[in-house]
Design a protein that fits this description.
Blueprint: H1 6-17, H2 21-38, H3 46-61, H4 70-77, H5 82-95, H6 103-114, H7 119-132, H8 135-150, H9 156-172, H10 182-186, H11 194-208, H12 217-231, E1 240-241, E2 244-245, H13 247-257, H14 266-283, H15 290-310, H16 314-327, H17 333-347, H18 359-364, H19 371-384, H20 390-401, H21 406-423, H22 427-441, H23 447-459, H24 461-476, H25 482-495, H26 507-515, H27 523-539, H28 544-554, H29 560-572, H30 581-584, H31 597-608, H32 621-636, H33 679-682, H34 688-697, E3 700-705, E4 709-718, E5 721-730, E6 737-744, E7 751-755, E8 768-777, E9 786-793, E10 795-802, E11 811-813, H35 818-831, E12 837-843, H36 853-859, E13 875-883, E14 887-898, E15 903-910, H37 916-928
Antiparallel strand pairs: 1-2, 3-4, 4-5, 5-8, 6-9, 7-8, 9-10, 11-13, 12-15, 13-14, 14-15
Helix pairs in contact: 1-2, 1-3, 2-3, 3-5, 4-5, 5-7, 6-7, 6-8, 7-9, 8-9, 9-11, 11-13, 12-13, 12-14, 13-15, 14-15, 15-17, 16-17, 17-19, 20-21, 21-22, 22-24, 23-24, 23-25, 24-25, 25-27, 27-28, 27-29, 28-29
Length: about 950
């Protein structure tokens, strides 16, 4: 143990005993002078430096300025004594900030500790980096911290701190970790240590918000980890919290999935559904122990949010609504708040979920003792409102509005006004509720509300007489607020003549009802009423003398705006201008139709209040974009599944011959073409071509092999359906960890690709696991899918290979006679369609080296029609492409070798213009890979 610093203890005691600020300041100044003199001694021991620096830290924390001692603090960092190094790092963390020029002096010492064999020194350095942060440290040390995170020799607690340090730096500078390092970070989610996995999950959750594509490999890893936690008891005993396995890790994983768009892979979707269903079943019954209940609710509500994000099936949503309905009556405020919030999120996305069955309980929440619950209840009532319950909800909101907190009245008024306008089916009800709202809300009404009422009344002739009659009754009351006066002034000025013949509603009655309120109004409202009076001069000439008196009086107003307006209206009402009044003050035309500014304000507020960048945020622009994209993707990538789940490969391929069309014979061209590699091909693992070519020609074989991993492949195809199984065998002498398989489909939605299982994340020596891939050809496609395989074998290994899946795999050879061949060839030519023929000339690098052209074409599913060509070396064949959306397409081919130039020419014709160029390119590619 380190020596007790008695001088520090005594100094702190002196300061605590100081009864006045002046006494404390005097004692501190004395100590600062003493420390300054001590630091002049070059022979000061590490213990003494540590003691004096601790005093400086304490003085700084009390709020006094400390402008020396920084170099001594930095020198302590270089000490080999833990306590001295600890105080040195503490001083740097407290006394320096990210903009300090002295940070350059400490970087070398930190860098040395990051590479130290002493993990405790390394952790001190990481703590200091995370506390100080800044671009100076990030630029110099980011690579070292990243190496600590991924190094297999790092201790678990070091890797955990490294992940959190990177997270701290990443929040300040998004460029410190390039996307190319994403796979190495994601691999740590599979760590056996839940502390490391939890820290990395936090880091990935932050990074994926900026670049979801770079971190999409994390999706399957997270789902697999959730399965392990839920169904395989994959949690050490020390991580259980009141019988709940690792609730913090659970919540982070569930939330991480919400930063991705929903997966279209059926296996992943089914796995997530099972996980969510199990979580809901296991945590839906509250525990009497408050700590256990909190842990259960944390996991449960995050699972519910994920279910909302993934748009789960209706039955599951009904089950969730039932559980949340029970939580609405919980004695715990937090539980009620979370339940109402979850229901509000659900209601904003689903119209068919029966949330309204809990309407009575929800309206009772408006009277909850906690204001946060009341706010959420308002959100929920707004979300579940529809034409059938609008009157009930609006009445409840109006009742609550009278006693609501001032801080939420403004937003409540906007919500009520929007609901009334959106769902009103009767004119009178709309007018009654709108004016009642203005009467109750008083000064809490935004201008948009009363202006919108005026706009709707002006644009609907059937509303005008009833509206004027109703607002006039409000104007007669003594407690009529200014917003009602504004509405009354506008409407009476426009349509007062509609009620002028009714009892007690004559012109003078209307004028007196308005002018009684005139003295207490604001300058803006007074100006509006003056405009009403000049309209009265036009509508009711019999009360012109009273109106002129008002103009004369206000023409002397101290308010320049009212003065000018009154003077102008006075001139207009003079005898020489009376003929102009009907023209100038004619009835206002209808307002142009436009979107409600109230609704726009509500949407803006909802977007602002969303948490992070989770993609399901209600009303957000990203949500709408992703919903549209997901709808297209879901339609295009429908699930492909074998009917026999026990036999993953098709037992036999159907081979029903069908007639179709065939190729043309044209003269040989000697211009060679060189294919341009696609971006996907440029990133493929070196040497991918050889096994790719073999597996195009054969249904099974070795897909990839090195000293650590062997990947075998088996495939089978039935018309438009296909199945590929990858077998992973561990060739190394130790366990391979964090195995992940990510499939990239370049031809979505033409080709649907889905998986049937998750391969084991760990493979023991000489053991095997497998990945089943299901395929469905919706339309003709060109690019093969790529598969990215990552695993940990000391360091992260990444393989990117092209799956041997080409359009010809979905083609069946068809037998034709020579006469039928040329007949169908002529039929294709006769259609005159563009693109029905494609021709390529290419060079074969292995020409003449025992290449069997007939075998290659047969492996590409072309039949061979004998005696169809005068040159026996030429190959003529036919086949039928099968797709699920477009049907079947007949295809014809002619392959012509030119031995003199080591060239080939291939000509393809088909009944669909999308196919010839694809088949010709595939044949050309196969020969160039030989």
């Amino acid at each position: 143990m380190s020596q007790p610093m008695k001088g520090l203890v005594r100094f702190i005691a002196d300061l605590r005993n100081a009864r006045e600020r002046e006494v404390e300041a005097k004692r501190i100044n004395q100590e600062l002078a003493n420390i300054r003199n001590k630091f002049k001694d070059t022979g000061l021991s590490g213990y003494q430096k540590k003691k004096y620096i601790c005093k400086l830290i304490y003085i700084y924390i009390l709020g006094y300025e400390v402008n020396f001692g920084h170099l001594e603090s930095i020198s302590l960092i270089s000490s080999n004594t833990y306590s001295e190094k600890q105080i040195g790092y503490l001083a740097v963390s407290v006394l320096l900030n990210e903009n300090s020029d002295m940070l350059h002096l400490v970087i070398n010492s930190i860098k040395k500790d990051l590479s130290s064999m002493n993990e405790y020194f390394t952790c001190l350095a990481l703590n200091c980096i995370a506390t100080v942060g800044g671009s100076t440290i990030s630029d110099a040390l980011a690579d070292d911290i990243f190496k600590l995170l991924i190094s297999p020799t790092s201790q678990d607690f070091v890797r955990k701190k490294a992940a959190l340090t990177i997270l701290r730096l990443y929040r300040r500078d998004r460029k410190i970790i390039p996307p190319s390092r994403a796979d190495r970070i994601i691999a740590q989610i599979d760590s056996d240590n839940l502390g490391v996995a939890t820290s990395v999950a936090s880091l990935v959750s932050e990074m994926v918000q900026e670049n979801p594509d770079a971190y999409k490999l994390a999706y399957s890893k997270v789902v697999r980890r959730l399965q392990h936690l839920v169904f395989e008891n994959g949690c050490p005993e020390e991580y259980y919290y009141y019988t709940v396995p690792a609730p913090w890790f659970f919540v982070k994983l569930l939330r991480l999935l919400q930063f991705f768009p929903p997966s279209t892979d059926e296996t992943i979707k089914l796995s997530i559904r099972k996980v969510i269903t199990q979580i809901i079943s296991a945590n839906s019954i509250p525990s009497k122990n408050i700590q256990q209940s909190n842990a259960q609710n944390a996991v449960l509500f995050e699972a519910i949010d994920l279910a909302i994000h993934l748009d789960m099936d209706h039955n599951l949503m009904e089950q969730i609504v039932q559980i949340l309905g029970q939580f609405l009556t919980s004695k715990e405020t937090n539980t009620r708040y979370l339940a109402i919030g979850a229901l509000a999120n659900m209601a904003s996305r689903y119209e068919q979920v029966p949330i309204s069955s809990h309407l009575i309980t929800i309206t009772q929440s408006l009277r909850d003792r906690d204001i946060s619950v009341r706010r959420k209840a308002i959100d929920l009532l707004y979300s579940i409102c529809n034409a059938s319950n609008v009157r009930t909800i609006v009445n409840e909101l109006l009742k609550y509005l009278q006693a609501a907190d001032f801080s939420i009245r403004g937003e409540m008024v906007i919500r009520i006004a929007v609901l009334v306008e959106k769902y009103a089916t009767e004119y009178q009800w709309y007018v009654d509720i709108s004016l009642r709202l203005l009467s109750i809300a008083g000064p809490h009404v935004n201008d948009e509300v009363w202006q919108r009422v005026v706009q709707i009344v002006v644009n609907n002739e059937n509303l005008q007489e009833y509206s004027v009659k109703t607002i006039f009754q409000y104007l007669k009351s003594a407690n009529c607020n200014e917003n009602l006066i504004k509405v009354g002034g506008y409407l009476l000025g426009e349509y007062g003549n509609l009620i002028s013949t009714q009892q007690n509603s004559g012109p003078l009655d209307q004028f007196l009802a308005l002018h009684d309120k005139f003295p207490s109004c604001s300058a803006f409202t007074k100006g509006l009423l003056l405009t009403t009076y000049i309209k009265f001069v036009n509508l009711f000439p019999e009360i012109k003398p009273q109106l002129v008196q008002v103009f004369e009086y206000n023409a002397k107003s101290v308010d320049s705006e009212l003065q000018q307006r009154s003077y102008e209206y006075l001139k207009m009402s003079s005898a020489e201008h009376m003929k102009l009044l009907p023209i100038i003050w004619d009835e206002m035309p209808p307002f142009p139709e436009r979107s409600s500014t109230m609704l726009t304000r509500l949407k803006t507020k909802r977007i602002t209040n969303t948490e992070g960048k989770r993609l399901w945020a209600p009303g957000s622009r990203r949500q709408k974009e992703l919903q549209a994209a997901a709808a297209t993707s879901a339609t295009a990538t429908a699930a492909v599944a074998s009917t026999n789940t026990q036999n993953l490969l098709f037992e036999e391929a159907s081979n029903t011959p069908t007639t179709s069309s065939i190729p043309v014979l044209t003269p040989l061209v000697s211009t060679p073409t060189k294919p341009t590699p696609t971006p996907a091909e440029e990133l493929l693992t070196s040497g991918w071509e050889q096994n790719y070519k073999k597996l195009i020609l054969n249904p099974e074989g070795i897909f990839y092999e090195d000293s650590m991993l062997q990947i075998g492949l088996r495939s089978d195809y039935r018309r438009h359906l296909g199945c590929v199984i990858l077998y992973f065998r561990n060739n190394s002498g130790s366990t391979l960890q964090s195995l992940s398989v990510e499939i990239t489909n370049h031809e979505n939605p033409k080709l649907a690709v889905s998986t049937k299982n998750f391969p084991d994340s760990s493979i023991a020596a000489n053991k095997t696991t497998q990945q089943v891939i299901m395929l469905e050809a919706h339309e003709p496609f060109l690019e093969s899918p790529t598969v990215k395989i990552t695993y940990l074998a000391g360091t992260l290994q990444v393989l990117t290979l092209k799956l041997p899946v080409v359009l010809e795999k979905f083609m069946l050879p068809t037998e034709l006679s020579t006469d039928d061949y040329f007949k169908r060839w002529a039929q294709i030519a006769a259609t005159g369609g563009t693109g029905l023929e494609s021709q390529l000339v290419f060079k074969n690098r292995a020409f003449g080296a025992g290449i069997n052209d007939g075998r290659i074409m047969a492996a590409l599913q072309w039949s061979r029609i004998d005696n169809a060509d005068r040159n026996p070396r030429n190959i003529v064949g036919a086949g039928i492409i099968h797709t699920s959306n477009g049907g079947s397409f007949g295809c014809l081919v002619r392959l012509e070798p030119n031995e003199d130039q080591s060239m080939y020419r291939v000509t393809v014709r088909a009944t669909d213009a999308r196919i010839p160029a694809i088949l010709a390119k595939n044949i050309s590619l196969m020969y160039q890979l030989l």
